[in-house]
Amino acid sequence: MEKIIAGKIINMTEDGYLIKSSEWTIDVARELAHEEGLLLLPEHFRVIEFLRHLHTSNQNITLRQISKSNVADIKTLYELFPGAPLKKAARIAGIPKPTSCV
After folding, report:
1. CB neighbours (10 Å) of residue 66?
2. Over 80: is that where the pLDDT of 99 sits?
3. What ranges do the domains of the chain cover?
4. Could you give the residue numbers annotated as active site?
5. Hey, which residues does 26 pair with through a beta bridge?
6. Which of 44-53, 80-89, 93-102 has the lowest mean pLDDT?
7. What's the pLDDT tens digit per position in 6-63?
């Protein structure tokens, strides 16, 4: 499906993930976060940048991997991205839904 985000037409999956991570910008991230009821702070961007790095490195993305990296511990991830931290963070980061998410 197509959606206008930050003034751009973005192709998205039915679950709301960007199909092409190359279409991601900080403005797109801010708008996606707003849809989730979040205002992005530097702490959010540390997680987002780490997820984008893992994705471009073709690494498996899990909550445990994030917490082991010292980017944010599990408790902080749930505070930053309440409810479903990995799903929300991945969606806002413009990467595909992690395979560890059901």
Report:
1. 22
2. no
3. 2-93
4. 101
5. none
6. 93-102
7. 999 999 999 999 999 999 999 999 999 999 999 999 999 999 999 999 999 988 888 8
On whether the CB atoms of residues 87 and 38 are closer than 8 A, the answer is no
- Cβ proximity of 80 and 47 under 8 Å: yes
Between the CA of residue 72 and those of 2, 34, 65, 98, what are the distances in Å?
32, 21, 10, 18
Q: In the prediction, which pLDDT does 102 show?
A: 60
Identify which of 70, 68, 65 has the alpha carbon closest to the alpha carbon of residue 90: 65
Place of tokens 């806002």: 92
Instruction: Output the six-digit token pair for 39.
Output: 């205002």
Q: Label residues 25-46 b or e (16+ Cβ within 10 Å = b).
A: eeebbbbbbeebebebeeebeb
Within 10 Å of residue 82's Cβ, how many Cβ atoms? 12
